[in-house]
Write a structure and sequence with these properties.
The protein is of the alpha+beta class and 488 residues long. It is 38% helix and 15% strand. It has helices spanning 4-18, 36-44, 50-68, 76-91, 134-141, 179-186, 203-209, 243-253, 297-312, 324-330, 332-351, 369-378, 381-402, 430-434, 465-478, and strands at residues 71-74, 103-107, 145-150, 165-166, 169-173, 193-197, 212-215, 235-240, 283-287, 316-320, 407-411, 438-447, 450-459.
Length: 488
């Protein structure tokens, strides 16, 4: 059996071999080429030490977090302890799988035992949970190493993350609400992270930062132990730099959970194993030009080019235009969201009204949490029930459309980071409303302004998560967009 010293020697040489040449290497520069899958293979073969990997990642976080604002809390001591435990287990032949020894970050709405969980709010500034949420628990049981908590707008209310910057252009925002996870992944401060998605909040920052973010089918992944926005709209899922990495994480975190009343009794699949399936002959719907009014020209071009890539692989392309009734019914999302949010936040608003302000600022106008909650409290139960009825009609319309399709494509965001798109309607929250699985993957970069990521959204009917990831993987394999890294 390989000794500890030999293990570390192998690790040092392997990491050195991966280093990218540059005049002044920044801390953790060796990590830039690493994905979860590659790091996992190297750890399994004892070419890379979990201790060294975690140490380098902490060094990179220390160097870059002041620039990006991606992490709220860094759990350095706990991470190093877990890394030593992982290394010891692997040396003893107790390898748990591809996440064993891999550091990851969790959105700061995820309860983490003994590690502060603020939800980005001053209200929870001293909140130290006594248990891990189900997702973190599962990732830890798989050998994952929690390294820190990622930034977000207060209580996840918003499509931008105050104080969190985009590594492709630090003058721009990282999106939201899982903006910290997206920024940290793009900057190679993390190679795996988690997010939350109620109105597109995994896919927005994934597109904006040029990474991969997956919103699974509603109920496939437990929400237990995570600060909610909306019980019937919230989704939790993995974020990483490749489709394979997301599939590895999804296999671990998916599955029934008796602690989540909305958890589906559906066993997780071997998502990584199903990535290689052929897409030849698949019926692929693409958003029609008429549905992209106001979308940025670079976004439209990247989207159309992406559809051609899949068509070149044998997919059958069909344009899709939604009816006016579908657009109207989709507006029920907003009513449901704020009504359910008000139900949860009522407890805090009444007791800590003066503290409902953003954690990064003393200006209460920087957060829309209080406004949203108070608006939700003004709506009646009849209005809420009518919104749920409209939602049912919306879902029926989507099932009808998807009965003629296998997957559907549209741009994740109407425009790149912080670029105005007047009157443009995005479709991210539609998939929170209907619960269909959807992923955002990099599909291009803008030319005006230059060098900002553009995302492609792929969706399918409920519990066709493996199909969504297979199509995403087919596109990723045929292109190079996911390999680009920002110069930070």
């Amino acid at each position: 059996m390989t000794s500890r010293r030999e293990f570390l020697q192998y690790s040092a040489s392997a990491v050195a071999a991966m280093a990218l040449p540059q005049t002044t290497p920044s801390p953790g520069q060796d990590l830039l080429p690493l994905t979860v899958a590659e790091a996992g293979r190297r750890i399994a073969s004892k070419q890379l030490s979990p201790v060294e990997l975690t140490r380098q990642m902490l060094a990179r976080i220390e160097a870059l977090n002041p620039k990006t604002g991606a992490l709220i809390t860094v759990a350095a001591d706990q991470a190093m302890d877990a890394a030593r435990t992982a290394e010891r287990e692997i040396m003893q032949g107790k390898y748990r799988g591809p996440m064993h020894g891999i550091p990851f970050g969790a959105k700061d709405t995820y309860y983490t035992q003994g590690i502060r969980t603020t939800a980005g709010s001053y209200v929870l500034r001293d909140h130290y949970p006594t248990f891990d949420c189900t997702i973190v628990k599962k990732l830890k049981e798989a050998g994952g190493i929690l390294i820190g908590k990622t930034n977000l707008p207060e209580f996840s209310f918003g499509g931008v993350t105050p104080g969190c910057h985009n590594p492709w252009d630090l003058t721009r925002n990282s999106g939201g609400s899982s903006g910290g996870s997206g920024s940290a992944l793009a900057a190679s401060m993390l190679i795996a992270a988690t997010g939350g998605d109620t109105s597109g909040s995994i896919r927005n920052p994934s597109s904006t930062n040029g990474v991969v973010g997956f919103k699974p089918t509603f109920g496939l992944v437990s929400r237990y132990g995570v600060v909610p926005i909306s019980w019937t709209l919230d989704h939790l899922g993995p974020m990483a730099r490749t489709v394979e990495d997301v599939a590895i994480m999804l296999k671990i975190i998916a599955g029934p959970d008796p602690m989540d009343q909305f958890s589906a009794r559906v066993a997780p699949q071997d998502y990584p194993q199903q990535l290689k399936r052929s897409i030849r002959g698949l019926r692929v719907g693409v958003l029609s030009q008429s549905e992209m009014k106001g979308f940025h020209p670079d976004t439209q071009k990247a989207f159309m080019d992406a559809a051609k890539v899949l068509e070149g692989q044998g997919a059958q392309i069909k344009e899709v235009t939604f009816t006016e009734n579908t657009h109207i019914a989709a507006e029920s999302h907003g009513i449901i969201r704020i009504c359910e949010a008000a139900t949860y936040h009522r407890q805090y608003l009444r007791k800590q009204e003066a503290e409902y302000r953003h954690i990064w600022s003393n200006d209460p106008n920087d957060s829309n949490t209080r406004i949203t909650v108070e608006a939700g409290m003004l709506l009646t139960s009849a209005q809420y029930l009518r919104a749920q009825q409209a939602r049912k009609l919306f879902m029926q319309e989507f099932y009808k459309i998807y009965n003629t399709l296998d997957v559907f494509l549209d741009p994740t965001m109407p425009s790149p980071a912080d670029v105005p798109a007047p009157n443009a309607e995005g479709y991210r929250n539609w998939f929170d409303l209907n619960g269909f699985p959807a992923v955002s993957i990099p599909c291009g970069f803008s030319t005006n302004p230059r060098g900002l990521p553009i995302g492609l959204q792929i969706s399918a009917k409920p519990f066709q998560d493996s199909l969504v990831l297979a199509v995403a993987n087919a596109f990723e394999t045929a292109t190079e967009w996911h390999k680009r890294r920002p110069a930070i």
